Structure to design on (411 residues):
């Protein structure tokens, strides 16, 4: 039965009665998030840079970034697993931190209702940073998880929303850390001496300790980690990734590894990809050449062991690709010594990235191929038959499938 003397408003000091809330509990969660969110922010920016968005408008899903694009750089091709590692860490860590974030928000919820809203300039700045922090955290985590699980559910560009949202959230995060870090360090050094407005004056009976609560939160994070991380591995571990997309599996055999879109989804007509119809159009400063698949097969063929890594976090192990080097195709149209950037167009009719641009350093890498075979067998329709791009360390969407045209030169 409700105590008639109990406060009825969330702004009342005794309304929030959990004995678990307090500066020590909040500080421990805050330190975990300090490390985790910093890693998330850095890997998110690195993931964005991997698309080479300042190379060509077709790669840039966040136009008009202004000074926020100050850190962009030419994406390297070494090590070849770079994007696989970066995006695996970004997605897996983001999902793993969800219980910590929710526990942190729960621990400070009384402050969201505290009155008066501002007692001083410093307090006002702290409240503003807290509101931006909470709103930004919820927006980034919710949109990120929904985009991973549901592919695309947002009005406008997810890339734009997530990019700008990350900067707003991280700015509030840095401001909050600077304001609260002295208190956090003092609390962790002297936990029994520190009291603040998070400690209820009317505590309810405890059901478990604060350390028990931390173990509970940590167990939730461990469970999410265990049911997510397998998306970056082959074999039995991939089947443990129950809460993460693992990429569509087209079956067994040499082509039996993950894909992000099927030929049917992309609108590929089998009549366009047959040997009597399909031509690869290659254009450069020396003109244009048109090559049938059998003519490509008469060119020098090379092999490379490279993974496929998706922005959603899943990836494959190294697959054995065989085809014509991109720099050899550049040489056919007048670039013998110094291959330039290339603009690649696909037969794909629906879905994002039917066109993509690759930098000169990616073209020049001897492992960058127009692949015709994978694991000793012709590409399947879902893997890009009759020809696809494969480039070391590049995001999966830049490894264009069902290639129709390649234009070498300044983009």
């Amino acid at each position: 039965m409700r105590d008639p003397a109990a406060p009825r408003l969330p702004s009342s000091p005794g309304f929030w009665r959990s004995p678990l809330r307090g500066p020590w509990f909040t500080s421990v969660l805050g330190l975990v998030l300090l490390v985790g969110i910093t890693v998330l922010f850095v890997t998110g920016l690195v993931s964005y840079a991997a698309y080479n968005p300042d190379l060509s408008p077709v790669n840039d899903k966040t136009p008009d970034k202004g000074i926020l694009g100050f850190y962009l750089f030419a994406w390297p091709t070494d090590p070849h697993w770079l994007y696989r590692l970066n995006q695996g860490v970004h997605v897996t860590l983001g999902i793993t931190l969800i219980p910590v974030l929710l526990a942190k928000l729960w621990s400070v919820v009384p402050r969201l209702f505290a009155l008066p809203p501002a007692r001083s300039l410093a307090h006002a700045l702290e409240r503003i940073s807290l509101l931006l922090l909470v709103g930004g955290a919820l927006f980034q985590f919710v949109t990120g998880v929904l985009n991973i699980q549901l592919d695309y559910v947002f009005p406008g560009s997810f890339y734009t929303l997530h990019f700008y949202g990350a900067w707003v959230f991280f700015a509030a995060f840095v401001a909050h850390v600077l304001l609260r870090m002295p208190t956090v360090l003092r609390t962790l050094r002297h936990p029994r001496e520190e009291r603040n407005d998070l400690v209820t004056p009317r505590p309810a009976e405890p059901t478990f300790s604060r350390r028990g609560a931390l173990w509970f939160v940590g167990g939730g994070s461990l469970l999410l980690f265990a049911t997510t991380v397998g998306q970056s591995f082959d074999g039995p571990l991939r089947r443990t990734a129950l809460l993460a997309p693992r990429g569509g599996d087209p079956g067994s055999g040499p082509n039996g590894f993950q894909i992000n879109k099927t030929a049917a989804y992309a609108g590929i007509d089998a009549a366009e990809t047959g040997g009597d119809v399909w031509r690869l159009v290659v254009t450069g400063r020396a003109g244009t050449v048109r090559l049938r698949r059998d003519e490509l097969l008469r060119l020098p063929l090379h092999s490379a062991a490279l993974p496929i890594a998706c922005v959603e976090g899943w990836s494959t192990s190294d697959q054995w690709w065989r085809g014509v080097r991109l720099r050899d195709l550049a040489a056919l149209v007048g670039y013998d010594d110094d291959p330039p950037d290339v603009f690649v167009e696909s037969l794909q009719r629906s879905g994002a990235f039917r066109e993509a641009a690759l930098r000169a350093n990616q073209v020049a890498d001897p492992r960058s191929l127009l692949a015709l075979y994978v694991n000793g067998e012709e590409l399947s329709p879902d893997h890009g038959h009759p020809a696809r791009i494969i480039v070391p360390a590049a995001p999966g969407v830049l490894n264009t499938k069902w290639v129709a045209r390649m234009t070498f030169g300044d983009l």
